[in-house]
């Protein structure tokens, strides 16, 4: 749920990048962080344990306007994708205002992606969120890989809710900002 800071006249929104391990969540955040004016963003922080990490930073987009006179500040998070960190993913999801589901388009990752979207739906139910109305976008990442599944296959099996989806190659920035703009606008529409 968005937090309102009366003192700074800002609404703080949390966007979580969710998906399997090494699908490109961190690469998305790193590209966004590098590309944003340093005066409009916070530092990128990594909350790390021995084998997992959660990345976080916030930024104030200048082109998305205001909501009832309040500027909107977005806090972007990644979740650890490895299977054994489900509790951490659940904790990071708590308080989210929008989700970017990052899919590794490679054929051999298909089953893991299916399991991850099912886990996301289950975790959203656990925290009392209705996926049917929750801001969500899909990102089909790693489109440059020779074994990338066709987009219609990904749409059919992973995007059953028919939410906006974007092809991406996060390693070179392709599709990263289109995805971020879409989820940001979706979150603001909910506000």
From TrEMBL:
The UniProt entry, under InterPro entries, shows: Gliding_Motility_GTPase, P-loop_NTPase
Q: Which CDD domains match?
A: Ras_like_GTPase
SUPFAM superfamilies xref list: P-loop containing nucleoside triphosphate hydrolases
Q: PANTHER family, per this entry?
A: ATP/GTP-BINDING PROTEIN-RELATED, GLIDING MOTILITY PROTEIN MGLA
Q: What is this protein called?
A: Gliding-motility protein MglA
The organism's taxonomy opens as: Bacteria, Bacillati, Chloroflexota, Ktedonobacteria, Ktedonobacterales
